[in-house]
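Marked as duplicate of an earlier ticket. Keeping the data here for the record.
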Amino acid sequence: QVFFYNFFYFFKVFMRFDDPVFAKFYDQEQSKSGYPGKLLDPVLAELENYPSVIDIGAGSGFFTIPLLQRGHNVTAIEPSKAMTEILLNKASDLQSPKLSIINDRWENCSYINKHDAAICIHSLYPMDDIKKSILLMKNSASKKIIIVRNSARMKTLSGLIRKELAPEEDRDLNMEITVILKSAEARYAIKEIQERRLHKFRSIDEETKQILFQLKLPEGEIERVKELISSLTFYDGNFFVFESFFCDNMYIFF
């Protein structure tokens, strides 16, 4: 049952990331929302004395680029070529010898040489075998960082609409991670990172289109989505505003 859940989750999520249109949309929406927000500084601080870093599920480079700017050598693992094209465009003016890109799933990367550190930020979710992925991290770097959502405490506009119109199991990996780390006798610490961000937009019609695309909702849900957006936001005279609350757990282990 877990295998089939993971398989369909991977198919649904990854196959969209491999679509250039969705990859561009995702990158723009993340940037517009202020991602990575308060996640970035703690990660950079933890990696300050670790010259070589594996960025697992690097996506369009929200952590790879700042790490390169800090002088780290980065091996970016990203199965989606559409996402790595965006990353390469962002990194075009940086020192390319410091960046290596591997277009493969992390579970297939046991051949990678050991690095000083490895990060996996919001990238465990589509992986078929969470335990294998974490143990591979353990063997591939001296210091490891995993960041996952504390879903029960988060509140986002698209999340509330998904819960209303397209309810699905919201996979919380925190228990799985702690069990795996304990069984592997890893030394680890957990830091909770909280952030409130104002999500602002000018047009309910445009926001509706974006949420329909993001959640893959049918056109027949347009009016319902508009109603939900109107009821969940307030207008400040210039923008419609929704106060998002993000809560993430950062696992640091050795």
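See parent ticket for discussion. The chain has ten helices and eight strands.
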